Amino acid sequence: MNIHEYQAKAILRxxxxxxxxxxxxxKAEEAKTAAGELDGPLWVVKAQIHAGGRGKGHFKExxxxxxxxxxxxxxxxxxxxxxxxxxxxxxxxxxTGPAGKQVNRIYIEDGSDIARELYLALLIDRKTSRISFVxxxxxxxxxxxxxxxxxxxxxxxxxxxxxxxxxxxxxxxxFALGLEGNQVKQCVALVKTLYKAFVEKDMEMLxxxxxxxxxxxxxxxxxxxxxxxxxxxxxxxxxxxxRDETEEDPKELAASKFDxxxxxxxxxxxxxVNGAGLxxxxxxxxxxxxxxxxxxxxVGGGATKEKVTEAFKIITSDPxxxxxxxxxxxxxxxxxxxxxGVIAAVKEVGLTVPLVVRLExxxxxxxxxxxxxxxxxxxxxxxxxDAAQKIVKAVKG
Length: 397
Known about the structure:
The protein starts with a helix and ends with a helix. Helix 5 packs across helix 6 and helix 11 (335-349) runs parallel beside helix 12 (364-372). By secondary structure, it is α+β, with helices and mostly antiparallel strands. The protein contains 13 helices and 19 strands. Helices cover 35% and strands 24% of the residues. The strands form 5 sheets. Strands 8, 9, 10, 11, 12 and 13 form a 6-stranded antiparallel beta sheet that branches.
C-alpha cells in the first residue's frame, strides 16, 4: 500500500524527522488560506499522486507556459493560481505512463533554500531478508539513472537483525554523503528515526529524495515516499485510514475486496488461474505462443463460486481483453467449483470474447461435464500447451 507525500511527511514529523511545514488542499478555493497559514515568502505547490517524476511531468491539454506538478510560488495568490491549474487535471509522468493520474489533492509547503541534494532510502532486501539502506550524493534525480550511469556513487548495506541498528550505521551514511561536523550527528539521529519508523509501521520502502542540506548546514527531508506491507496493514489502523482508493486500479481494488491476487497488465489475453506459480507459467506460455497476458490473477487454493464469479467479472471489465484462458489445477481447489463459477459469471456478464478452459485435478470430470452441459461456447484445452495455443489462435486469428 502506498500513501501520498503529505501523509508520509506527517508520519516523519510524528517521529521527529525534520520536514517543512505544509497544508493539504482538496479544493482550489482553500489554497489561498492554506498558503497564508505558512511563513513564506516562498511556497512550493505539489500535485499529490502515487507516482514519481511529478516535477518533470506535464498535464494533459496543458496551456502554453504551464509547468509540471511541482511549482514555486512567491505569493499566496500565485500559490492559489497553481492549485487551480492542477486540481482535477491529469498529470503524466514517467511513472504513470501515458494515461497519467488525476490530481485530486495539492500539498502546499514552505519553500527551502538548498545547498546540497542527497538521496537516502530504506528498503526490504529480498535476497538477504533484511532492511537495506541506500544512500547517494546524487539526490534530486532518479536513483535508477544514478545506478546505471555512476553506480560508484551509491552506498548500499543491510542491517543484521540480531544486532540491530547502531550509531556506526548512521556515521557510515554520513561519511558516504560527504557530511561533516554537526551534520554527522544530525545524520546519525535521522537514520535512527527512519529505521524506527520503518520497523514500527511495517514499511516496505521509505525514500527521501531529496534529503537536503540547507545553507545553514542542517538536514531536511524535502520529499518523502512510503510503501507499506499489505499483509501487515491489519496491525495499523492509522495507516489503513490513509489509503486513497482513487489512486488504485479499479480492477485491482475490486479484486482485493474479494481476496483475489490480481495485477493488471497490457496484453490481450485475460488469465484466471489458481496458484501464483501456475499463474506465472500460464503468462509465460501465452507469451511463448505469440500473445501477451492482460493480467495476473490467482484465485487461490480455496476459492468459492462467488470468488470465481467476481474474478471472471474483473477480467471481462478490461476493454483490452480479447480472449480469456482459465487454467485450473485442482488440488485444494475443486474443478467443479471453478466450472460453476465460470458459468455463473458468463450468465451474469455475458461472453463476447473467446474462452478456453483447461481443467485438471480434483473433480475434473465433473467440472468438464458441468461446462459441456452449460451450452456455453467454450473451447476445451487438453493441457496447458494446447489451451495456450488455442486461445492465442482464437485471438490472433
